[in-house]
Amino acid sequence: QQQVKQSPQSLIVQKGGISIINCAYENTAFDYFPWYQQFPGKGPALLIAIRPDVSEKKEGRFTISFNKSAKQFSLHIMDSQPGDSATYFCAASEKGSQGNLIFGKGTKLSVKP
Amino acid sequence: DAMVIQNPRYQVTQFGKPVTLSCSQTLNHNVMYWYQQKSSQAPKLLFHYYDKDFNNEADTPDNFQSRRPNTSFCFLDIRSPGLGDAAMYLCATSRAFVEKLFFGSGTQLSVL
Questions:
Q1: Please, which pLDDT band fits residue B39 given cuts at 50, 70 and 90?
Q2: Is-contact A45 A110, C-beta < 8 A?
Q3: Does the CB of B5 have a partner CB in chain A at under 8 Å?
Q4: Contact (CB, 8 A) for A86 and A37
Q5: What values do phi and psi take at A19, rounded to 5?
Q6: Are the beta carbons of B24 and B66 closer than 8 angstroms?
Q7: What residues does each domain of chain B span?
Q8: Cα angle for residues A57, A58, A62 (degrees, 5° grid)
Q9: Which residues in chain A land under pLDDT 70?
Q10: C-beta separation of B35 from B60 below 8 A
Q11: Buried b or exposed e, range A50-76, using 16+ CB within 10 angstroms
């Protein structure tokens, strides 16, 4: 129940298209849901994060949609660019967990020019 | 301006030969974490420090140890590396728990 299930494993999108990555969880105590972006040979970097008191958060071309009742959240990348090609990890943690982020298995996104 | 610096970038060691990986931070963050990331997998938390308080994840092998001599530095010691310990080791920091993690670029460990 500590798992975060992420799909798809890989995604190919044309430049200008919308990339959508989905995550699902079981632990209702999770209250922080970040997305991290990782380029090859680099550490992950925080992209955007949401808490369950809102259903959507947008930062530039990146939007998190959060469905508390379904225990699902997703990342939407609008106007996808080749520079967005990276691996994306969703994650979750619960209050009092001492910061232990539970990561999804990652989605490798390729944006074709 | 790198804020979380890991050295070395690549480390090759022999089976069973102790190895130490280092991490330093210029952010003055309270929390420092060590993650293990194997190829095409998610990062897995090994342990963390909140200031000097150490917390070991339940499934972290005893072979892995850590030291934090001061706020800026943290070390990962692998006492007897096995072939299965070959991975990217990521250091991360945060100001407090459940806040943005700042990752270093990692140390890629190879075990021969």
A1: confident
A2: no
A3: no
A4: yes
A5: -100, 135
A6: no
A7: 4-106
A8: 120
A9: 1, 98-99
A10: no
A11: beeeeeebeeeebbbbbeeeebebbbb
What backbone torsions phi and psi does residue A43 show, to the nearest 5 degrees?
Answer: -80, 160
Query: Which of A90, A80, A92, A85 lies closest to A42, judged by CA?
Result: A85
Just give the CATH number of B4-106: 2.60.40.10
Q: For residue A79, give the nearest of A17, A14, A11, A12 by alpha carbon.
A: A17
Predicted pLDDT of residue A99: 66
How far apart CA A106 and CA B84 sit, in angstroms, is 21
Question: Residue B22: which pLDDT band, with cuts at 50, 70 and 90?
Answer: very high
First to last CA, chain B: 33
Mean per-residue pLDDT, B18-29? 96
Domain extent listing, chain A: 4-112
pLDDT value at residue B2: 67
What the block records as the tokens of B109 is 């460990």
Averaged pLDDT score across all residues of chain B: 93
Helix boundaries (H) for B1-112:
none
Q: Which CATH superfamily is domain A4-112 in?
A: Immunoglobulins (2.60.40.10)
CB half-sphere exposure, B65, CA atoms < 13 A: 9
Contacts of A89 in chain B (CB under 8 A): 42-43
Instruction: Give how far B17 is from chain A: nearest CA, Å.
Output: 25
Q: Do A93 and B106 touch (CB under 8 A)?
A: no
Contact residues, chain A, for B104 at CB < 8 Å: 43
